[in-house]
Amino acid sequence: MIWTVVPADGLDRGGDPVLTVFGDSLDMSTLSPHGACLLWQPELIWLNAVSDILIAGGFFATAFFVMFSVWRRRDFQFPWAWWSFGIYIMLGGVSHLLSVLTLWVPVYGIESMVKSVVAVMSVGVGAALLLVVLPRFLVLPGRAQLQQAYAALAEETKQRRSAEAMVQRFQEIEATESQVRQAQKMEAVGQLTGGVAHDFNNILTVITGTIEILGDAVKDRPHLAQITNLISAAAARGADLTQHLLAFARRQPLQPRSIDINGLVIDAAQLLRPTLGAQIEIESMLSPDSAPALIDPSQLSTAILNLALNARDAMPNGGKLTLETRNVVLDDDYAAMNNDVKPGNYVMIAVSDSGTGIPASLLEKVFEPFFTTKDVGKGSGLGLSMVYGFVKQSNGHIKIYSEEGHGTTVKLYLPQAAGIASIADVLAAEPGISGFERGDKSILIVEDDALVREYVVTQINSLGYITLAASNAAGALAIINGPDRIDLLFTDVIIPGGLNGRQLATEALKRRPELKILYTSGYTENAIVHHGRLDAGVLLLPKPYLSSDLARMIQTALTS
Ligand SMILES: Nc1ncnc2c1ncn2[C@@H]1O[C@H](COP(=O)(O)OP(=O)(O)OP(=O)(O)O)[C@@H](O)[C@H]1O
Ligand SMILES: [Mg+2]
Predict the structure, then answer these.
(1) Do residues 339 and 463 both lie within one domain?
(2) Number of structural domains, the chain?
(3) Pocket lining: 381 vs ligand 1, CB cutoff 6 Å
(4) Rounded distance from Cα 382 to ligand 1 centre (Å)
(5) pTM
(6) Ligand 1 centroid from CA 532, angstroms
(7) Does any ligand 1 atom lie closer than 6 A to the CB of residue 385?
(8) In degrees rounded to 5, what are phi and psi of residue 456?
(9) Who's near 238: CB < 8 A, 6+ residues apart?
(10) What does the pLDDT look like over 287-332, one tens digit per residue?
(11) Residue 435's domain spans which residues?
C-alpha cells in the first residue's frame, strides 16, 4: 500500500511518497493534524514516539517469546489459546507503532482498524485469562509441592523395584523347586527302572548266551533255526531296551576315555546317512579346536544315533539335521540356574533338526522313561532317557530346546578330558591271542543267580576251560583256600556271603597273588565302579554278553 501524504501546509511537493513518509518523519513541518496538535508542547511528540517504539519492541519480544515457546514445546496445554495470546500481543505492538506513525502520517483508518481488532481480542483474551487460565493456574503445583511429588515418586519407584526383585526371586525359587522336584522324580524312576533292568539283564544274559549254542545245534533244521533266530532277535531287542534302562538309571558300566569328539561325530554322521534317507540333509559344523571329551565312545555313538532317529521321526517329509561341536564354558551363573551343573569347561555336541518340534507342555516329560508320542510299536520312549542318564552319569549336562513347528535342538555338554587314558584303552585294543593251552586254565565262577551260573559254567566249559563254581563269597573262599588250581576268578560284583566281588578278589589275591580277576555285572556299584567309572586295572564284562564277548574277555584277563 502506498500512502499519498499531504503535508500540513497542503502543498504536494512531488517525489516518492514512501520516501517522503520516512524522509520527512523527523520533519516537524510534516506532522499530521493529530501530531500538529502536540506542537503546543513539542517534547511530548518525542516522548510519545520513543515510548511507543519501546513499548512496541516489548510487545514484539513478548509475542515472539509466547509463540516461539508454544511452537517448540508441543506439550503446552491449550496451544490455540497461546497462539491467540501471541497474536494479540503482537497486534498490541503494531498499534503502538501506528500511534507513532500517525504523528506524521494520518493513517487513522488503519490505526483504528488495528485497535478495534486488538480491542475485540482484549475482551476474548481477558475473559480467557480470567475464566479459563486463572483457575487452572492457581491449582498448578508450586515448587515445594513438586519436590514432594518427586520424592513420593522416587519412593514408589524404589518400592516397585524391590517388589519386582522379590517377584523375580520367587519365580527363581519356584523354577528351582520345580527343577528339584523333576530331578527327584527322575531319580526315583531311575532307581525303580535300574532294579527292574538289573534283573532283566540276568535273564537276558542266559538267553543271549545260550541262543548261539542252540542255533548251532539246529542249523540243519530250518524251521527250528528260524525260531532260534526269532528268539535271538527278540533277546537282542530286549538287551537293547535293558541297556537303555540301565543307562537312564545311570547304572551302566561306562568306560570313559579321552575321545576326539569331531572324529566320533563324523563317524556317526556316516553311519546315519543310510538310516536317515535321502530326504534328510545332514550338515556338520564342527569346531576345529574342539577339545577331547572324557566319555564312553560307544555309548556316545548310541546317544547320537538316538537323537538322530528322533530327528528323523520329527521330519517325515524331509528336512535338515545339523551336528555341531564346540568348546563351551558353563559359568557360575549358568550353574546357579541349572542345579545339576558343575561350572567348568565342556565340549558341546548339538543335534538340531528342522522338524515338528515339541510342545512346551511336553518338553519336561521327554526325558522320562517310556514317555513317547509315537504309535505303539514305533517308539518305546527310552531313546532320550538313555541319552539323559548317560550324559548325567558321565558328569555332563543335557539341554533341550524346541519350538513347535520349527524344530528341536538337543545339546550335550560333555566334560573335557585332559589326555586321560583308562582301562578302556586297554580293552579297546583287541587282545592278542597268546599261545596258552585252554585245557590248562582253570576258572572259578562266582555267581549267585543259579540260572546264570549254570549258563556261564556251560559256556566256559564249552570254550575248553576247566571250571569251578560258587554261589557266594564264602563258598568261593573255601575253594580258593583248597588245593585246586585256579587261574582266573570270574565274579559278579554283587554277590551274597558277606563280601562283594571286589572284596572277594582282594581276599583271593592275598592267598593267590598270581590270580587274574574278571568282573561281570549288569549294574555296578561303588565297589567296582565309582559313579559309573571303572577303577584302574579292573576288567569288567557287562551283562548281557555274547559267548564271543565272554571268550574274548577271558582271554584278555588271562593274558593281562
Ligand atoms: N527331535 C525331536 N523332535 C520332536 N519330538 C521329539 C524329538 N525328540 C524327542 N521327541 C519327543 O520326545 C518323545 C520321547 O523321545 P524318546 O527318544 O525318549 O522316545 P521315542 O523316540 O518315542 O522312542 P524310542 O526312542 O525309545 O524308540 C518322542 O516320542 C517325541 O514325542
Ligand atoms: Mg527316540
Answers:
(1) no
(2) 3
(3) yes
(4) 8
(5) 0.53
(6) 25
(7) yes
(8) -65, -40
(9) 200, 204, 207
(10) 888 889 999 888 899 899 999 999 999 999 999 999 999 899 888 8
(11) 429-559
